[in-house]
């Protein structure tokens, strides 16, 4: 190789030099340094904003007691809550430890293709799966989680890998949830005792596992959590992220959230989650995601789930619409059973979202916030837009089939249609501002969706 280059003519050398300079230049322009100013300047890969709707999955050893929440271990032995102690006394033999739940996490009925098919039918463009929660159990064969991972114990399978394959066959983006802290890991407790001035846990557990996850599964998204007890300097977060953005196999497409150290969330990282279930009051100037759970009280599965604990279809769709109108993504959580089943009530809710998106997806996927987000009147109307097209999503059907929209400024070319219905709708200008739209008086059986209908406006300002 070297010989051939040496013998090439001067023009060849010039070309090589130019090429080299271009490569160096593009490399330099893509080089992020391990500080927030640099990392925060990275543009968010476009797929994330376009995706709008994702499914979150919380699955781990906590799915075995399946009681209280995925924080079971902490409530029981970290805080020693009486309710949890009584639950253990009444249901398990004396001396039963949390680790004894591990072998009972069987995943017997886990068919990743069935999950992926359900998430596809739900209209999800991405899925975020708990690779490891605060209990430290890894859902993949982590070489640094000896006998506390899904290959050595319980399922005896690589859950992270299997789900990823099934999702990617269906072009669904794959995100991995990863908890920085582990409640009871001896090295974490040692670092804590040292006031987090040592990093034994980070160098032997957190960093190796994050690198392993990225290199082995090439996730499109890393959903970081469990950051709150220590500053990002303890977690080595800016070093990890600069590697992720500069040199990792997913450097161009990967998206991360904002939980990378105490006081980081809502300030630094990729997109912002801020608090769980966070909803901003007005349009934020930074991409964000609202994460919430189908079970109002837990992210992990609970055996004593009641129907009234489950978000209703109209609640879910309202939240999705509000979130997207305010520029966010909506990440809806489901907790499978220890066997790997997604119970029918969760399936039903996910499929309801999918049916709604079949009709209304045009106003959601790849949309942008409009200049107005909400109009409050008899009925709530949320707006989204795509280029010059404006979508008004109204949550209640107006009493006399006449929808009043205050904000759109009509023109001579204004046209109105309704998603899921053929033909144009009649409309008229209000004398002062806004417009009235005559909705088709359809019988219930012919309504395109049962809730949250969308009118599409063209030629409005
Ligand atoms: C932090 O990251 C840097 C760069 O990857 C690495 O050299 C260093 O060892 C890491 N520190 C710890 C404690 O893992
Ligand atoms: C970080 O957060 C803690 C607790 O929320 C707060 O008391 C503290 O003032 C914050 N520090 C900075 C530098 O913002
Ligand atoms: C509410 O809608 C009615 C028409 O349905 C309209 O006359 C009225 O001005 C609206 N109120 C506000 C506050 O926009
Ligand atoms: C329908 O409602 C609008 C707004 O409240 C009102 O202006 C209009 O007069 C109503 N039409 C009928 C037929 O009641």
Automatic annotation (TrEMBL):
GO terms for molecular function: alpha-L-fucosidase activity. Its EC number is 3.2.1.51. Residues 27-362 form the Glycoside hydrolase family 29 N-terminal domain. GO terms for biological process: fucose metabolic process; glycoside catabolic process; lipid metabolic process. The record marks 291 as: May be important for catalysis. It catalyses: a neolactoside IV(2)-alpha-Fuc-nLc4Cer(d18:1(4E)) + H2O = a neolactoside nLc4Cer(d18:1(4E)) + L-fucose; an alpha-L-fucoside + H2O = L-fucose + an alcohol; a neolactoside IV(2)-alpha-Fuc-nLc4Cer(d18:0) + H2O = a neolactoside nLc4Cer(d18:0) + L-fucose. Belongs to the glycosyl hydrolase 29 family. This is Alpha-L-fucosidase. It comes from Cavia porcellus.
